[in-house]
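Lab manual, section 2.4: Encoding a predicted structure.

Procedure: take the sequence of the chain (128 residues), apply the prediction step described in section 2.3, and record the output as structure tokens. A sample record is shown.
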Amino acid sequence: MRDFTNYSISPHTDAPHKLVSLLFYLPDDESMLDLGTSIYAAKDRSLRCEGVGHHPFEGFKKVATMPYRPNSLFAFFKTDLAFHGVDRIEREHVTRDLLLYNIYVNKVVGTKPEKSARPRVAWPWQRA
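Recorded output:
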């Protein structure tokens, strides 16, 4: 993947069939540490997203940004609360290189469990 100046991607949770995302950061040096992928918490704590779209930045609080550091890795499981994205890159002449490795699952065929039976998965800062 290669992102440039003015690139951004608003908070989202990835496609429903994605299990794990691994982002290998490939900058030349540590001059762009602030350009990593960010984790967001929804201001509306009841918001869940199965991964069918992106959401406006205004509805989220940035919790952390993973440093865009040479030879580093940011990995996370896909959940309906794993909101992540990239703030607009406003610096001029930026090239943000990364290698994405995603693990997908096939859709499980069968009956869907009742919502009450589904375990609630949350980032540690979203737990009540």
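Check your result against the sample. The mean pLDDT is 89.
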